[in-house]
Amino acid sequence: MSTTDAVRPHDRPRTAPEPALRPAAEPGSGAEISIWSRLFFDGKALVLRSRGFFGERRERRYPLSGPQGISRAVLVFPDAETAARERGAGEVWLLDASGRPVARLLPYQWIPAGAPWLNFEEAVRRSGIAALFKACGIPVERTTQDRADAPRVPWWQELTLLLSPGPALPLWYQALRMALGGVWFLAFTVLFFSEASLPWLMLLAAVTAFLAPVARLAVRRVTALRNRSAARLDPAPLVEISPCPGPPEEDGTVATRRFVSRAVLRVFPGELSVVDPYGADVRRALSGPAGAVAVVRLTGPDGEPVGVELRYASGARAPLGAWADWFAGPGGEAAWDRFRRAVPLPCEERKVSAVALTPSLTRGPGAAFPGPRAKEARQDALFTRSIGTLNSTMFMMFSSSFSFWWAPVVRIESPAAARTSALLGLAGLLLQFAPWCWHHLRSRSHFERPVSGEDRSLRPRSRPRPARSCTSPTTRKARTR
C-alpha cells in the first residue's frame, strides 16, 4: 500500500472514474467529505480519497497485484441478533494472496442516504461495493462472524485497516476536546474533594474550560473555509436548480426561507448533488454500473405531479424531492425543463395510487425538503456535535460555570488567580451562549418563517422550453390547444 498525503487539488482529476463509492452525507464539515472522499479503481489499484487526522485531503493506493496486493474480498455477514441490535452491522474484508487482511469496509459509511435501514447484503449492493469489485476483478466470498474463516485481527488493527471517508469533525479537535475534558475533570476532582484552595489548579481548570469553546469556534471557522475550498474542486455544474415551492399543502408542510435559500439541486457531469436545507450534500452517480438509469416523475391519482425520483437497474428508487417543494410554484416548469435537459438520463412517468402516496415516497432519505416543525429544523441546523454529542455542550457549560463559581474560594490566597478564573469562566459562557442565541434568533426571526406570497412573486418567471419527455399536464394542454 502506498500513501500520498496533503494532495494538491490541482494535481488531481476533479471527478473519479465510475464505479466510485460516495460517502454518507452529513451537514457541517460533511460537505467537504461529500465532495472529496471517494473509493474508486483507476485501472491499476484501488484509490481512497479521504480526510486525515488534521483534516487534510489525502489519497491511499491499494494495489491489486503483488504479494501484498488485494486478491479477494470476504463479506462478513452479522448474525441475526447483531443485525437486529446494531444498524448497519456487517463488514467487508479485503485480503491478500496469503489471506492476511489488507483493508476493511463498512458499507453504511459509503451509502449517500438511507444506510441504517438496509440489511447488509442490500447495503453492499446499494453502496456500489459489488459493482466496484466486479470492475476491479476481485472475487467475492461470503462468511459469517461466528465461522472460523472470518478474518480476525486486534481492534487497533481494525481501526488502521478501515477504508473510511474520514471523520465528520477532524480527529485533532476530538482528541483536543477529550484531553481538555480529562485535565479539567482531574483538576475539578482534586479541588472539590481537597480542603486546600490550590489557586494554580483552579487556574488550570479555568484555562482548560475556556479553551473548549474556543476550539469549537475555531473548528467551525476552519470547516467553513475548507468547505469553500472543497467546492472549488467540483467542475462547473451543468445546471443549478433552486426550490420553486407552491402553496402550503394539506398535510401542513410549509416551505420555509431556510429551505428556499439553502436547498439546491446541482447536476455535474456524471453526478447529481442534492443539498438539503442543513448543508448535507447527497451525491448520486448518473453513470457507470452503479449509477441511476432513469429520472422518474411521479404522478398522483389525479394525474398531477407529486414528486421526482431516480430509478436504478436493480429496481431501487431514490427520492429527490416532492413536486410541491421544488417545481409547483412560479418558474417551476422552467426549472423542471432545465433539470431534465441537464440530466443525461431518460425520463419516465410513474403513476402512484392514493394508498402508496405517502410522505416517505417523495420526502424520503436523500431527498431535500423543508422540516416538518420549526423546532426540529433549528435542532438539525446546529453545527455538528463532538464525540460527546449533547453531553459535551452541557459539560462545557458546567465547567465554565464552575470557574466562575469557585473563584471566591481562592480569592483570599490568590486574588489574581480568582479574578482570572472568573473572567475566563464568564468569557467561556459568552462564547457558548452567543453562537447559540444567534442561531436561535436568526432561525426564529428569518429562516424558519414560511415563504410568503411576496417572496414567491419575486422569483424570476421564465417561459419554459418544450422538454424532450415528461412534460407537465399544463404544457400538454397548451400544446393541444
UniProtKB/TrEMBL annotation:
The chain crosses the membrane at residues 175-194, 200-219, 382-406, 418-438. It comes from the Bacteria. Residues 449-458 have a biased composition (Basic and acidic residues). Residues 17-27 have a biased composition (Low complexity). Residues 1-28, 449-481 are annotated as: Disordered. Keywords: Membrane, Transmembrane, Transmembrane helix. Coiled coil: none annotated. This is DUF2207 domain-containing protein. It comes from Streptomyces diastaticus subsp. diastaticus.
